[in-house]
Design goal:
- The chain has 21 helices and 45 strands.
- The protein is α/β, with parallel strands linked by helices and 925 residues long.
- The strands form 10 sheets. Strands 2-3-4-11-12-13-14-15 form an 8-stranded parallel barrel, surrounded by 4 helices. The chain has a 7-stranded mixed beta sheet with strand order 18-17-22-23-26-25-24, sandwiched between helices.
- Strand 19 and strand 20 form a beta hairpin.
- Pfam families: Glyco_hydro_106 (PF17132), Glyco_hydro_2_N2 (PF22666).
- GO terms for molecular function: hydrolase activity, hydrolyzing O-glycosyl compounds.
- Keywords: Hydrolase, Signal.
Length: 925
Amino acid sequence: MKIKNIVSLSLICFAFGNISAQNPWPQTTETAKPWTRWWWMGNAADEKGLDKQLTTLNKAGFGGVEIVPIYGAKGFEKQYLTYLSPEWMKMLQFTTSKAKSLSMGVDMSVGTGWPIGGPQVDEQDAATKMIVQTYTISSGEKFSDKIVLKDEKQKNLKTVKLNIVTAYNEKNEAVVLTDKINADGTLNWKPGSGKWTVYAVFVGKTLQKVKRAAPGGEGYTLDHFSPEATKDYLKTFDKAFGNSNYGIRSFFNDSYEVYNADWTPDFLNEFKKRRGYDLSPFIKYLVSNEENETAGRVKSDYRETLNELILTNFTKDFTNWAHSKNSKNTNQAHGSPGNLLDLYAAVDIPESETFGSSIFEIPGLKRDTADIQKSDMPDFNMLKFASSAANVTGKKLTSNETFTWLTEHFKTSWSQAKPEVEQVFLSGINHVFYHGTTYTPADVKFPGWLFYASVNFVPENSLWPNIKGLNSYIERTQSVLQSGKSDNELLMYWPIYDQWASPKGKDVTFKVHNVEKWLVPTPMYENMNKLSKMGYSLDMISDKMIGESKSENQKIQVSKEGSAYQVLIIPELTYLPESTLKSIIDLAQNGASVIFQNEPIDIPGNFEVDKRRMLLKSLWNQIPFQNQAGNMKFASIGKGKIVLSSDVVKALEYLKIEREKLTDTGLKFVRRQFDGGKYYYIVNHTSKEINQNIPLNFVGKQVTLMNPENGNYGLAETQNNSVKVQLKSGQSLIIKNTEDIYTSIPNWYYAEKTDAPILLNQPWQLTFKEGGPELPRTKNLKKLEPWTNFTEDASTQSFSGTGVYTTTLKLKKKNADDYLLKFDKLYESAKVIVNGQDAGIVWSLPYEINIGKYLKKEKNTIQIEVCNLMANRIRDMDQKKIQWRNYHEINFVNINYKPFDASNWKVQPSGLDGEIQLIPIHYSK
């Protein structure tokens, strides 16, 4: 349907009263704007500094802050406040009151630094580990040794105790000797015959302390598996907060980075209660390096128990506690030994994180290998664990710690941030937190206080004048991605028991930083990549979620608030609990479509193995499979269908599940549904321009294109369930499809042709308006060039700030519909002013901006205010040995965690270079 037909249809519908005038952009709130993690160094916060920084953040387009106290700056010890003290709480109250007056939100970490812990964590509640000692004893020999702890670091701890003693002979016959040990460690047992190995397991402590702790937050890390430890820990916050939440929207817990914590004092009892048998006779299989079936089964049960303990005793208790304060909670589940999907789902706002820099094909996008993390690159599918949990359970927000170590300090441009955050959005996340902003007292000089692992989203950043470009883009995008529900059609089961059943190692943690070990090699990951590239949209689902799912109208739904899905996919696996298979068959009986990539081979765990294995086989044999063409088996079961095929794509085609063919162009998308329509958020991360009709599975009666970069919108051209799209590399677009017809929406401007470009190769004047350490002198340029080219002027080599390029342009005729100002090289962002009018910000690739409405015939004045990186000024400070980094603890490191020193850096090009073209554009009528 052509656009003129849409307009005529509008007139027809208007006569029947079904038309309303409406701006297509959703109304935004503070959650649609980006938030930032706000480090309080040493808690040295005062009302003047808090007021100044909150006001500055608000003006720059931030919607909220997340307070995380950390180590302090040297020389400011007298200003330090003790965490959660009355003085600290007073600053918190001032912060939330000031933020409220600015329509901003405030979150805070339940601890300082990370992972959570502190002075309230006594020895009993501290992170716990197994300490294993082995002994040998033979019949007829006197066992003269004593079974006492030999670890010198643990000997003085009051809570360390002997937990399990089990002996094994050469036939692996076990005798539990725990009650045969006297108080002094002597063994009250003699073997009847043979040689025996005795395994003694002590309950010890990891002795890990809180990392990067703030004053008043130092202490042991928490035992996440103990309900008493969680309860005791939160009592400190109860005391500080009383009956108020002090205006905190959400209490935040950072990623699980508790090292070597693999036990809890009551683990044995919990294991027996949850797994149905005593672990003591099998302890050898858990703690030794033997790789056999029994070891894999025991370790699977052990890992599943750890999962249930952290879910029940920490995560759910944390959520309930936050709700008791009339607040929400936010949790980064990754890094833990639990099922990430269930852990993310157990909180109000699941939060993932990105770490490092991604590779994009966008021409001109800077990615210097010397300035990036060598080992870390954000993984798209890793991000989907958090968004999947939110989507299937109906949580409106999924957050993300964004831009951690994106590049080396002081070298990150806003153009580099854009595709990274787009990748986050495409994964289903819709509430980003920058990493981040450091609180700086109002009177501290440049560069202010800085955190060692962040992109510097601070007012002292020389790029700050143009941050509104990035922030506004994110605000518009998130306003759409926070509307309605996710509209993914597939559910992918995570076969976590295949991970848990490995006989190698002991505890298994699912970290952001080791996906190449636990995620990338799996068939699930391969399927997710393949299906995503083909245009299918999916979320992941856990065993627990499958058990809670219902099937209605051929759709699968975990909760009423969550999204509904067309197909459940069980990727290739070895282990599947019989209870999960039963739930899957029940879903199919009630109308669901299910794809198995292979027949489940076995049940996990070591309890009643033969009985449960037979039940699994019996359940599978109840599925009445019939052979189909192409090595595919199909079964109608109840109201639903089950397909068995190693080729998931062919199975989806057999079930007539449509993919979005727009991905054939290389475009990426995420889709949302709302009452009366659907949004498509589409991004061009390819190296080429897309200028064609792209097919959509859903095209409404009215289709509106919306540009999240500048807010423009207009009615699209459509034809045969496709929409005309013009997207250059690096650009994005939102397509709003509605069943209702709205008036007052203009037509979208499609570029039909361009005239020969006008080259702005005339003289320019270069002046400097703000920055330091000093403003370079004004320069008259015969042609455009960066100010760093003027090596004879030392101030240009050290300057970080804003340089203003000004020229005049005579436009002999103005007969085009619009004029595009296109930059060749821009270091790094710019505000464009035409004839005294603000035309907008150029901050992302492609570096161009429409300025036609500001131009006039004959003489035009064009000013381009360019902001460069902080790098050159920091380089100069290090060369002059000016002390600007002076912090307790880690002080300051570079991206490779070596002492930071910019004195040997090359001068970063700054300003404009190459040609600037003014391109006349003619739009289709």
